[in-house]
Write a structure and sequence with these properties.
single chain; 294 residues; alpha/beta; Rossmann fold; 7-stranded parallel β-sheet; 10 helices; globular; SDR_fam; Short-chain dehydrogenase/reductase SDR; oxidoreductase
């Protein structure tokens, strides 16, 4: 059955591949980009099944206007994909404050803005799917990417809370966490600041390794787009979806390291409750803490 999609950041990279896949599958699409003229080839090929909309996701009013295009043009909205984002590289100490805040505004608050704009429509329909394009960097950390990865961690937490709030309303939420993909995310879209000598062994080494090893980006954005298309058709989609062998491998290492550290300090962690209390695991509140959709 044909669905109505809205995809932010549709002009290039994964967003472009997903837009093409959605339209090729017969769906209708509101494609957004900062420069809507970059979307005209989609309009030329698919005509009335696509609307090209200019959108800066950091602007809440613009997000509401983009969502309104879906209902005015197609009468409903089924799938919202928050894909727009970018990263610049520098140490936490050296990154300009305005740059740090701008990355958070786009990569996190942009997701919040578009999600909040779509919720009244999806809630009224009692169905819909919100897909957040995050990163394996939303589970781990990389020197030089503090602003970007902080935003992705925030997207994960925001989306898990969202899933618990709207699951009973028929709205599904999926956080997609790809590994490295061969797009211009780490190319022309990424700027690297001046890295001072004390950070050359960490931030500088990361930048050099990426430049010297372009094959580290293993993910095929066209295949990732097809995976997202499949997940959007599932009745019970995952809350979190890793994409790419690197993402799967790194996620396992991250989880293992965190579990080992938690176990090492378990006794100290357990020592801070008031005396005489039953274990938390036996309390009624423990049931509310269950991870997942709730």
């Amino acid at each position: 059955m044909s669905k109505v999609w809205l995809i932010t950041g549709s002009s290039r990279g994964l967003g472009r591949e997903l837009a093409k896949a959605v339209l090729a599958a017969g769906h209708r699409l509101v494609a957004t980009a900062r420069k809507p003229e970059d979307l005209q080839s989609l309009v030329a090929q698919y005509g009335e099944r696509v609307r090209a909309v200019g959108l800066d996701v950091a602007e809440p009013a613009a997000a509401r206007a983009a969502v309104a295009v879906a209902t005015s043009a197609f009468g409903r909205l089924d799938v919202v994909v928050n894909n727009a984002g970018y990263a610049n590289v520098n140490s936490i100490e050296d990154v300009a404050e305005d740059d740090f805040r701008a990355q958070i505004e786009t990569n996190f608050f942009g997701v919040v803005n578009v999600t909040r704009a779509a919720l009244p429509i999806l809630r009224a329909q009692r169905e819909g799917h919100i897909i957040q394009i995050s990163s394996i960097g939303g589970r781990g950390s990389t020197p030089g990417l503090a602003a970007y990865q902080s935003a992705k961690w925030a997207v994960g937490g925001f989306s898990e809370v969202l899933a618990k709030e709207v699951g009973s309303l028929g709205i599904r939420v999926t956080v997609v966490e790809p590994g490295g993909m061969r797009t211009d995310w780490a190319g022309s879209s990424m700027k690297t600041g001046d890295i001072q000598s004390d950070y050359q062994s960490t931030v500088g080494a990361m930048v050099a390794y990426r430049h010297e090893n372009p094959d580290i980006m293993r993910g095929d954005p066209a295949k990732c787009a097809q995976a997202i298309l499949q997940v959007a058709s599932e009745k019970e989609p995952p809350l979190r979806l890793l994409l790419g062998s690197d993402a799967v491998f790194l996620s396992g290492l991250i989880a293992e390291a965190r579990a080992e550290e938690d176990a090492k300090w378990r006794a100290l962690s357990l020592s801070t409750d008031f005396d005489g209390l039953a274990p938390f695991s036996e309390s009624p509140v423990a049931k509310l803490a269950k991870p997942g959709r709730g």
